[in-house]
Design a protein that fits this description.
334 residues; alpha+beta; Phosphorylase Kinase, domain 1; Aminoglycoside 3'-phosphotransferase, Chain: A, domain 2; five-stranded antiparallel β-sheet; two-stranded antiparallel ribbon
């Protein structure tokens, strides 16, 4: 169905109709703006059950319409890996321009969680099994290194993999503790680029719900800390400069807790920082695994970009872990 859109446009460039414009910011799916719509092709190497993604979206869309003023783009039609969504005129950002923007982003994702509290967990299907499971991610990394299909394994990378493998017991113990928290429906991709802003930089809509599924709220919080609390780029070349920015950390935490303060449980709050450390470590593994496998998951624009993303994320993980008490104190002071 959607393939024809592009075929027709190639044949009729003299009609005055606009051609699809590709949006290149996303790391996973392929996205185009076409006339008044957004057309996406879901990456089936990542999301094998596309029907589950479409069904989840309709469930969430209908629930939000009835129970909340939170806006997501309307899903107009879908066909296998393809879908057509409402286009919402807006601005997007890769990083927060200031603390207030970080606050607004965290507040919006917190309210998104709140709006889905009464949606039954079994109404939403898991779209990526073991999505946040460090033990599984370490095994995937070890397997990628063992196969080394793209001949990208170096002695330095193998040394780092050996170090990561030795931490399995620690992560298993931490997981058992954290996973005693209640499961809720969460976004699981809480980057600022998944918020649409209006001309005054107020939040307008939330997008990219492909990973929205039953899970733990501290991973949504943790992904915001991972993606917004540092002023460094995700693939920062000056790795020694990578660190958490205290003001951004506070803004994210204040925004999030302002949104969820009425219902977050003590055990969930006590695991927010551990969830952040967990997800940053996990994400670093995912980048390294993808580098070894030949960049099949995360899109790249230059050589060794996923390797650099790994180094940046790992440095961020070390900063948060080594300053645990400092950041835990901030969380509990709010």
């Amino acid at each position: 169905m959607f393939d024809n859109v592009f075929k027709q446009e190639k044949k009729s460039t003299d009609t005055g109709c606009p051609s699809p414009v590709e949006i290149t910011k996303g790391l996973i799916n392929n996205t185009w703006i076409y006339r008044d719509f957004v057309i996406q092709k879901i990456n089936q190497d990542v999301f094998q059950d596309t029907e589950a993604i479409h069904k989840n979206y309709y469930e969430i869309e209908n629930h939000l319409k009835k129970n909340s003023n939170i806006r997501i783009p309307k899903l107009i039609e879908n066909d296998g890996a393809w879908r057509r969504l409402e286009y919402i005129s807006s601005k997007t950002f890769l990083r927060p321009e200031n603390n207030n923007m970080a606050f607004k982003t965290a507040f919006s994702f917190g309210k998104f969680q709140e709006a889905l509290l009464d949606l039954p967990l079994n109404a939403i299907k898991e779209t990526i099994p073991n999505f946040h499971n460090v033990d599984s991610r370490i095994s995937q990394l070890e397997n990628a290194a063992k196969l080394n299909t793209k001949s990208r394994l170096t002695p330095k990378i193998q040394e780092k993999i050996n170090e990561i493998s030795k931490s399995k017991t620690f992560w298993r113990t931490l997981s058992q503790q954290m996973f005693n928290c209640p499961k809720r429906i969460v976004h699981y991709d809480t980057k600022i680029s998944n918020i649409l802003f209006d001309k005054n930089n107020n939040t307008k809509a939330i997008i990219d719900l492909d990973t929205t599924m039953p899970g733990f709220i501290f991973f949504d919080y943790g992904d915001m800390i991972r993606s917004m609390s540092s002023k460094n780029k995700e693939d920062e070349m000056a790795t020694n400069q990578v660190k958490i920015n205290k003001n951004l950390f506070e803004a994210i935490t204040e925004g999030y807790l302002s949104a969820v303060g009425d219902w977050i449980t003590p055990i969930e709050k006590s695991n927010l920082l551990q969830g952040s450390i967990y997800i940053i470590f996990e994400n670093s593994i995912r980048f390294l695994t993808d580098h070894i496998n030949g960049d099949v998951y995360f899109k790249t624009s230059r050589k060794n970009q996923n390797l650099q993303r790994f180094k940046t994320q790992y440095k961020l993980y070390e900063d948060l872990k080594n300053n645990f008490q400092k950041y835990q104190k901030i969380i509990f002071s709010i």
